[in-house]
């Protein structure tokens, strides 16, 4: 999808996507970061931030109930600690419209993108501090948002400490970074954790100076792309795949990296040596 600062139009798009997913027999629909709102400036989202029991989130909860489908709401402007900061919340809603889990984005995107925009998320957002996994109809989900993709230690914690089998990376990747790194990082994280990776993506031009790479993608635990939207700028749509948890366990059994891991964080057992010039 290509969200804008029009909250009502964004909801209609998400409603259309939910209908497509429901009609396709999907158990879950995964929406990207900023599904409800993308402003022209970073501070614009502060005007619509609300608690998770507020009216806008209630509409999306009602949508899940109406379509009888679980929703992964990839990045919502949740009411933050003060008037100048929101939380970027990934919210999991079940088919009854109940919130099952919420994750607040830990790694904030403060980057001057080469040949792209200057984005300073921390100016108007506060980071989360909790790693979150949640059970769902397709297995245990590891919840993340966008820039978290670049931090493999979070993926490792979700697999080895939380037992996640499906990693969620709802995103609004910039075009320069997406073209260079999007697919290769998603496939790498799937291979590293031997997990499914589901990455719903914003696409197209949101406003002057703000555009997203798109290319929503689903990767299996062997690192194979099993669903993808190749031309996201042509409009909204969904990529559909089946999650095979038995096949996931077979992949993990072929190369049992969980049993081979060493406690590299223990400096007594693994001291650091730097051979300087």
TrEMBL record:
Q: Which UniProt keywords apply?
A: Hydrolase
The segment(s) forming the CN hydrolase domain are 1-245
Tell me yes or no: is NAD among this UniProt entry's keywords.
no
The question of whether Hydrolase is a record keyword is answered with yes
Coiled-coil positions? none
One GO molecular function term? Answer: hydrolase activity, acting on carbon-nitrogen (but not peptide) bonds, in linear amides
Q: Which Pfam families match?
A: CN_hydrolase
Recorded hits in SUPFAM superfamilies, A to Z, give:
Carbon-nitrogen hydrolase (SSF56317)
In terms of Gene3D superfamilies, this protein maps to: Carbon-nitrogen hydrolase
For this protein, the record's PANTHER family field holds: DEAMINATED GLUTATHIONE AMIDASE, NITRILASE-RELATED
Q: What is this protein called?
A: Predicted protein
């Amino acid at each position: 999808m290509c969200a804008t600062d029009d909250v009502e139009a964004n909801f209609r798009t998400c409603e259309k996507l939910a209908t497509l997913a429901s009609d396709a027999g999907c158990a879950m629909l995964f929406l990207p970061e900023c599904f409800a709102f993308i402003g022209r400036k970073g501070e614009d989202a502060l005007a619509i931030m609300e608690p998770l029991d507020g009216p806008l989130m209630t509409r999306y909860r009602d949508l899940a109930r109406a379509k009888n489908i679980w929703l992964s709401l990839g990045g919502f402007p949740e009411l933050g600690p003060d008037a100048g900061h929101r939380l970027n919340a990934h919210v999991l809603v079940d088919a009854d419209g109940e919130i099952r889990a919420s994750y607040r984005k830990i790694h904030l995107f403060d980057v001057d993108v080469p040949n792209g925009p200057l984005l300073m998320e921390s100016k108007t957002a506060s980071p989360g501090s909790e790693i979150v996994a949640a059970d769902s109809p397709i297995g245990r989900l590891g919840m993340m948002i966008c820039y978290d993709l670049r931090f493999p230690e979070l993926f490792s914690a979700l697999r080895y400490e939380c037992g996640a089998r499906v990693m969620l990376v709802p995103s609004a990747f910039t075009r320069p970074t997406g073209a260079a790194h999007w697919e290769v990082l998603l496939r790498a994280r799937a291979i590293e954790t031997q997990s499914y990776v589901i990455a719903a993506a914003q696409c197209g031009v949101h406003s002057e100076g703000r555009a997203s790479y798109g290319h929503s993608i689903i990767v299996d635990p062997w690192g194979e792309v099993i669903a993808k939207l190749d031309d996201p700028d042509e409009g909204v749509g969904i990529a559909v795949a089946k999650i095979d948890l038995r096949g996931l366990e077979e992949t993990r059994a072929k190369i049992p990296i969980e049993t081979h891991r060493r406690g590299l964080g223990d400096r007594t057992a693994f001291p650091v040596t730097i051979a300087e010039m």
